[in-house]
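Hi V.,

You were right to ask for the full record rather than a summary. Here it is.
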Amino acid sequence: MPTGVALRDVREQLFAAADRILLRDGPHGLTSRAVTDDAGCAKGVLHRHFADFDAFLAEYVLDRAGRMDEQAAVLREAAGTGTVTGNLTEALTALFGSVAVAIVALITFRDELRARLRETWPAGVPVLTEGAEMIAGYLAEERDRGRIAAGAHVDTLAAVLIGSTHLLFADRTGARPEPEAVRHTVTTVLAAVL
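Predicted structure:
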């Protein structure tokens, strides 16, 4: 992009470029040059807004984790409607059908990124931790409505659902899991509490 041309919402343009690159090329393809090329701007634009590339990546990951609040609200609103299995299948498919799996791979791939994230995210893996909190909140709502067992340990169930579903989606190169595979996982994990 020529010097002097204003970019609208530079952060979001750069973050959207990172999404596209992660989905297309995986974490090894995510470089500052790739991000700025995809966003259609000069490389210096990224460095004017972020101290360095790992600072950009840390803010990107935290931004994407923070966006899960909207998904959590939608899932909580679904409590008491439809089926618990159906609601969770839909939510987990949407979560892992997004850039979330690629973000987890990115965090695993880059040591410096993990170190930066630890400064503001002391435990767990962003996106997976948010996903587990989203599922646990929903399951607590359903437990309060009597749609799952009163003694159900929602935090454990949520962690198992996140981990199991992540494994279904983790292979970026293979075919995406069918909704029935996700539904089977949810049904199996929740069998004792439904």
